[in-house]
Structure formats: structure tokens, C-alpha cells
């Protein structure tokens, strides 16, 4: 379990704790058959899970992820309507979009709070989305992260995903995020 504290005490008392470390990026790169920088990027987007990284390697998913990055960059710079992007994400793969968004926000927050300690795949100065989010404060990034995680958890539960996704993406526009 990744959350042993949530297990009942009677179950925990009969269990043995065994730590299974995540493989390093060199091992994953060899396993996936991709260059190490690409493996680090896939691991980051997959939350450190190698099997999730494999799923992200598909041509379809890679194309979607590239589109997520480009569209959110335009939304964040007020060059594209967040509502239209939300509609598109909901039609294509809302779960993948939200998982990607959560990872991107986590990476941007880490870069913002501890730039020297970061093991980022890309140089922050060369990352258009990171630069687009510079107008947003750290608090706004944390708010967007919490909203994205909440929406990801609630997908399929009867929530109005269309409205929630629109509100989430509109929050990346700097003039709306401050209010």
C-alpha cells in the first residue's frame, strides 16, 4: 500500500513493510528503449511509475500531451479561450489531461520553490508553459493544483466535469487567477 496508515490496525499488524524503490531514470531508459532525458520526462509525467510511462509513449498519448502543453500555454497567455480548451480536453481524454496537468503543476511549483534542488527535465528558461505561469503567484499554482487533483478524483462521480474543467482552465489566465 502506498498509504499504510489508511489500513485497519488489525491488517497492518499482520503485514510486513517492504520498501520498493523507484528505478532510476537510466534503468527506465534502458527498459523503455528511449534516451534518458525522454525517460525522465515520461517518468515525471507518469508520476514515477514505469508502467504508466509506457502508456504515455503511445503515439496517440504523446500527441495529446503535446497538444495539452501548447493549448494551456496559449490559455495562460490569454491567446486562447479556456472554455474551448476545456471542451476539447473533455472530448479527447479528460483523465490523461488532468494527470498531465497535475504533474506539470507539481514540476512548476518545485521549480519555483527550490530551483537549485530541482531535477527538472527541461531548463525552466526554455519551458514556455513555465514562463507563461510566471505571472501567477505560487498560491495560485497551489490552488490550481488542488483544483486539478480534486477534479481528477471526482471524474465519473456525477460532478459537472464540463463546468469544473472550464473553471479550472480559466484560473490559468493571470487576470482571473488573482481574483
Overview of this protein structure:
The chain contains eleven helices and no strands. With 179 residues, it is mainly alpha-helical. The termini are far apart. The model has no long low-confidence stretch (mean pLDDT 81).
Low-confidence stretches: none
* H/E topology pattern: HHHHHHHHHHH
Radius of gyration: 18 Å
Give the distance, in angstroms, between the N- and C-terminal Cα atoms: 39 Å
Q: What's the oligomerization state? A: single chain
Q: Count all strands and give the number.
A: 0
Largest sheet: none
Helix content: 55-70%
Principal-axis shape equals: globular
Mean pLDDT: 81
Structural class: mainly alpha
Number of helices: 11
Tell me the β content: under 5%
Compact description:
The protein contains eleven helices and no strands. It has 179 residues and is an all-alpha fold.
Question: Which descriptors would you attach to this protein?
Answer:
mainly alpha; 179 residues
Secondary structure blueprint with pairings:
Elements: H1 9-12, H2 25-32, H3 36-45, H4 50-56, H5 59-76, H6 82-92, H7 94-113, H8 128-132, H9 138-154, H10 161-170, H11 174-177
Amino acid at each position: 500500500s502506498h498509504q499504510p496508515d489508511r489500513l485497519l490496525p488489525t491488517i497492518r499488524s499482520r503485514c510486513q513493510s517492504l520498501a520498493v524503490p523507484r528505478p532510476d531514470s537510466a534503468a527506465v531508459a534502458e527498459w523503455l528503449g528511449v534516451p534518458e532525458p525522454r525517460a525522465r520526462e515520461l517518468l515525471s509525467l507518469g508520476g514515477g511509475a514505469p508502467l504508466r510511462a509506457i502508456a504515455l509513449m503511445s503515439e496517440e498519448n504523446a500527441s495529446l500531451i503535446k497538444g495539452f502543453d501548447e493549448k494551456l500555454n496559449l490559455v495562460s497567455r490569454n491567446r486562447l479561450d479556456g472554455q474551448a480548451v476545456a471542451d476539447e480536453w473533455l472530448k479527447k481524454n479528460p483523465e490523461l489531461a488532468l494527470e498531465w496537468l497535475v504533474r506539470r503543476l507539481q514540476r512548476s511549483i518545485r521549480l519555483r520553490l527550490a530551483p537549485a534542488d530541482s531535477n527538472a527535465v527541461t531548463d525552466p528558461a526554455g519551458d514556455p508553459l513555465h514562463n507563461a505561469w510566471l505571472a501567477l503567484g505560487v498560491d495560485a499554482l497551489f490552488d490550481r493544483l488542488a483544483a486539478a487533483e480534486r477534479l481528477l478524483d471526482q471524474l465519473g462521480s456525477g460532478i459537472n466535469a464540463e463546468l469544473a474543467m472550464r473553471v479550472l482552465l480559466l484560473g490559468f489566465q493571470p487576470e482571473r487567477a488573482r481574483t
